[in-house]
Queue: 2 jobs
Job 1
Amino acid sequence: MTDNVQGSLLAKFPYLESKIKEQRQGRIFLDPLQKEQFWPVFDYIIDELGYKDFHMLVGRDSGETMHVIYLLTDGGANMLCPKLEVEKENPVIRSIYSRFSNCTWHELELVDLLGFVVEGLPEGLPNYPLPDGWPKGSHPLRKDWKVEYFNKETLTYNPPSDI
Amino acid sequence: MSKRVVIPIGPQHPALKEPGSFIITLEGEKVVGAQVEVGYNHRGIEKACESRTYIQNLYIIERVCGICSHAHSTAYLQAIEELAGVAIPRRAAYIRSIMGELERLHSHLLWLGVAGHEIGFDTLFMYAWRDRELVLDVLAMLGGNRVNYGINTPGGVRRDIDPEHIQKIRDMVDIVEERNKYYINLALGETTLHARLGGVGRLSHEEVIKFGAVGPVARAAGVAFDVRQAEPYAAYDEAQVKVITDDHADVFGRTVVRVLEIMESIRLLRFLLDNLPEGEIITKMPRRIPAGETVSRYEAPRGEDVHYVCANGTDILERIRVRAPTEANWHGMSHMLENDYLADVSIIIAAIDPCYSCTDRSIVIDNRDSGQQTIFDWKQLRQYSIDWYRNRGVDPAKLANRLPRL
């Protein structure tokens, strides 16, 4: 099964050469891709390879860049996880709401916890999961966010000025 | 069109057992719109895990949820054991499955009681929680705690199960099986329960797929998926699971699935106890978890629990992301509430079995010398806990200063 998946991906997208990692049977991870390369692969995985079940999104601060990992399964034991890479200075991604209506809270989490901008999310959604009044521009899952600079009484984030 | 009324329920409300906010739009008594807002319990656990060692994280992850504590710790450990290339001993795998099934038993009985309470059937609430105590006593015997058993450790389990334990589990299982037959008769043969729960909180097979619902919510709509069967972990390659499904696709169906899953857990427990292999319960782990990433899946009582773990080769992990089953089940909640009645809101919410911690309770300490019992209040319990650690050379005050806290 997974050999077929890898073969199909490579035949369709030669630029995936050496970017497919099989952690074990049923766990395939793709190396991070820029959006121009990512979205055709993402669509192909769902429409052609049958990985139609969306499980969750994982946002990751990888230093210079930011990653979003999409966990998709084929309805059984096989999981395929492509990664989207964006610049840390401009972490704008496209919502997958049109495909998976259960993505909203995952994407809201990317906004609150990592500072992503998600285009195409339905309007009027509450912020999640951080409370109202959380300091703007303060995203706890970024690696440079330190708990010791956060004042939970006043809900302010005060890093030293030399950082 | 009737006049519409908007009613906010929660985040603190007598009909809810946890902080969630539900903005319900009504036409008369009928729900025509519902918005779900959660996040009140966000504790920054994933961030906390990025500044602690793998062992410290085990104790944090176990506390993601009180009821599903074994589910979360097992899912987390499966991930790091896979990255480390370690296969745990078979006896340890069996013990993890035994704890998992005991956890499912107590969780489903807890849910049955809550469901009974929400529909005004408090006799069922008292019966189910009485029976749940038998399971909790066994869990406390095996792990030292009613929840957060601390049985898991990287490379296996911390405590073995001896023949005396096995006999006590068998005795408990016999009683719970007998009592669960009554609940099955109640669910399948008693018209009152069907009249109250049938057609309430519907989520069809197609909608389950669309909203990504998991566990008993999905299986009650005929989705025959159970991680224990689809991707066997621990001892489920040998203790093969019969996936329980139903086709009512409503709260009644979710009740049927859970009471039948109790019987399946009892069958699995007997198999696991009959075939518990001899041998070690722990194997050596490498000092460092090699860099890599993986996803671990576990069938918790409430549904599929997913843990993504990324290791960077140091003592501290790079990223962990936990998707508890309730998170998956919230997405279909607005749809389940719409077109039902205001009086059904609390049972529909309860029917996905949303997570909340049951650890905040008084504790009865048996004084083995005098035979006397003492009921601790909160202050005494806190002092007891501090003294317990101090007597073992750990000063909680110093520990609190050393670890950064959110």
Job 2
Amino acid sequence: MPLNIGVLALQGDFQEHRAVLESLGAAVTEVRLPHQLEGLDGLVIPGGESTTIVKLAHRWGFPDALRQFVDEGGAVWGTCAGMIVMASALLETEPEPLSLMDITVSRNSFGRQVDSFETDIPVKGVPGGPVHAVFIRAPSVQDQGEGVECIAQLEDGTPVAVRSGKLMATAFHPELTPDTRIHEMFLRLSAGEPSPV
Amino acid sequence: MATSTNGTATSYIERVREPRWLNSQDAEVGSYAVKSGLAQMLKGGVIMDVVNDEQAKIAEDAGAVAVMALERVPADIRQDGGVARMSDPNMIEAILKAVTIPVMAKSRIGHFVEAQVLQALGVDFCDESEVLTPADHEFHSNKWAFKMPFVCGCTNLGEALRRIGEGASMIRTKGEAGTGDVVEAVTHARTVLGEIKRLQHLPEMELMTAAKNLGAPYDLVLEVARTGKLPVVNFAAGGIATPADAALMMQIGVDGVFVGSGIFKSGNPAQRADAIVQATTHFDNPDIIANVSRDLGEAMVGISSNELPESEQLAKRGW
């Protein structure tokens, strides 16, 4: 049986995630309404515009549905905007995140688009050398609660990937590179395999 | 190395252009991957024309993925006539300060100094736009020379691939701006998507001649024939005025929509903006589109694009 993975398809680069997940053998569902979460092993919250995704998520009743999904053992991975959606608090006043993971996040932490960048960073739990990470108007983790582990940071120590149980969040976009190792890590998490870390 | 994925401009960009960004071991800023990547983050979204910071806030609150800062929306540019130019930097800066979503602004076709100014202001995306009066009758700006990404208009596949060849990170079909008439947007989107399908079915020996006939770079023609899609994100623009218009363009197969005059020239901008955002997300759900389409008040008045004399058709601008 392939794993059933959803991609939150309210807005953003959900098709890019879908293509990678399908290439790894997952059965992928585009999730636009909460009832589509039923039967999923994991959910990816893609990159996109966080204010748009959060607004649409509130509008269609996702906050409660997603917290229930997590409580029932579903895995969730947010990339960039997805990290902002999952946060418990933001440094900024808006938007109101969905509080799936105990992290405080700063939006557009590195400046405007002209400051967007790409670089190579090691990610804990990902074998085979550093990951090529693309940061686009990216957030960063400012504070993390107990039980949340930083699994990647920039050279200056800024945390850019975190994990806690079956939840993970990356400030960068593995779906924009041909390297599938982080998607594979999320599929292992969704399958309930023990962490290699 | 800058890579992008799943069909974004990898092979052509890597072979032809990417080395210019590879001269340092440091983190790369403004590479093609981060430029085309921002366009990918806008997918499934609505980009709205705004003329001041107040409208920008309304657009952001309604769920726009980006705003286009300009002094006059296309409907007014049509009405006023005269030369339409880049907006006042003060006005653009006020909008940059007012919202946290990406801010786009327009330069005239070929006016690379206006584009340099926009980059200096910190604008997130430049639209080299036929809505403004062209500054060059022959050439478009060299978009490789910027770390700010560009979106450019097109009416067919050849025009799209020429703009990508010049370094555009995103394409939008032109439609006919400022009319509220969706027919040209449909025509241009169907033309581009139809020409892509045709390329996919040509034997390889015919592709060089296809490139010649399209007036498009051969490498990009090969890539499109192989992947069946443009190497960058493709939005629809020009004449989208209702939630159903937006969903129509999404079902035809574009990645998102620009709404120009359609929102702030209508009776109830906040509600219409929200409805168009909902219809773009739920483009394949007619029940939701029906619900958000209720009681929106007056749509923009509109001009049938058939009635426009050729000299007033903005889509003809661009080479």
